[in-house]
Amino acid sequence: AALLTSTRKRGAATYAQTLQNIPETQVTTLDNGLRVASEESNQPTCTVGLWIEAGSRYEDAKTNGAGFFMEHMAFKGTKKRPGSAFEKEVESLGAHLNGYTSREQTAFYIKALSKDMPKAVELLSDLVQNCALEDSQIEKERSIILQELKEMDSSLTDVTFDYLHATAYQGTALAQTVEGTTENIKRLTRADLASYIDTHFKAPRMVLAAAGGISHRELVDAAKQHFTGAPFTYKGDSVPALPRCRFTGSEIRARDDALPLAHIALAVEGPGWADPDNVVLNVANAIIGRYDRTFGGGKNQSSRLATLAVEHNLCHSFEPFNTSYSDTGLFGFHFVSDPLSVDDMMFCAQREWMRLCTSATESEVTRAKNWLRNAMVAQLDGTTRVCENIGSNLLHYGRCIPLEEWDARISAVDARMVRDVCSKYIYDKCPAIAAVGPIEQLLDYNRIRSAMYWVRF
């Protein structure tokens, strides 16, 4: 009985207590510019990762896809651990190694027992500075990536968002896909991949992050041992500047009446990562809500747009998004609907945007802020999510923003702020549109543009 009582008390921490009891994130910058950050806890496991300011935005038309190709090659052995030796060493630790590439960042991380943290740091260092890039492995991975590209074409949601970037940032680096084109993947060489690593994998653009049962001092010592060699020596002229990207209100339509459902994405230009307007826009998106036919609740959902979708059978699903980059972003919504419901769904969604600009209420703002707080605290679930949060924060903001500060920013939002900020980014702005599938009913761009404001007397 005493054990059960103590267990209940441990799980009864209030929301405020949870925020106050989060361990402080410690950050140390090495002489070569590498930032080492960690959050210590009593977990028996830890996640150690390397977050790098590199992605498809730093590629040109000829090298687009090099970062994604490099991500594949990173797990295929190093000069010290050729072939399967690298994989066997990771497996001998019982660890999990993973990575991803996006438009502005690349990450590699290992989840392992806390005692194996120094070995995880060594493996990450070996992975990024001694990648073998064997010709036989390159050809093998080339075939795998080409097959992945074919499979990605079957994901219409991903295709729609790639089209959205292509039209919103046409002629710039953000218009490129992360995976690259089929033509590029076929012709990228070992020299191209080696050049990508030498150009972008520089210490000032890296964050070594860790979370779990680890010591920050031990993490720094391991970083000094493995991340201070010649490849990580910083030269001021060796780090290329971020290419400038400009938003354009335009559209891409890929009509295919053989497909069963239409995928539509509409977006306006949003703010960059560090802009405080992001918090308000995230509250606005929480007001809009999200919907899928598999959800329960029916007509009794708090989202007005979801209620309309249920009552009038407008769509199969919809979801708002706020995708941020260093100096720009895409704020919008994506929905999937039957061919004969496209016009009605677009009308209702744009009407909801206009309502946010003109008549958002305090009650729905309060509900949206509570939803955001719940999503924020969910970041504490597991060392991997905490580690990713640390690495991404340092790349995006230059510091790790504590959850208490995020909570204060959310609490400061009221209905007037939502109306003002939504008017700033949405009202009477030219949107970017991407549409795939049976989209005959999607209205002309000028008609959609005319619904971005209300004529009021």
Which properties best describe this structure?
6-stranded mixed β-sheet; respiratory chain; Cytochrome b-c1 complex subunit 1, mitochondrial; alpha+beta; Cytochrome Bc1 Complex, Chain A, domain 1; transit peptide; phosphoprotein; 18 helices
Chain-wise SSE layout:
Layout: H1 2-10, H2 15-20, E1 26-29, E2 35-40, E3 45-52, H3 66-73, H4 84-92, E4 96-101, E5 106-113, H5 117-129, H6 135-152, H7 156-168, H8 182-187, H9 190-200, E6 206-212, H10 216-226, E7 251-255, E8 262-270, H11 277-288, E9 291-292, H12 304-312, E10 317-324, E11 329-337, H13 342-359, H14 362-377, H15 383-397, H16 403-411, H17 415-425, E12 432-437, H18 445-450
Parallel strand pairs: 2-6, 7-12
Antiparallel strand pairs: 1-2, 3-5, 3-6, 4-5, 8-11, 8-12, 9-10, 10-11
Helix pairs in contact: 3-9, 5-10, 11-14, 11-17, 12-13, 13-17, 14-16
Organism: Zosterops hypoxanthus
Domain Peptidase M16 C-terminal: 188-370
Membrane topology: Peripheral membrane protein
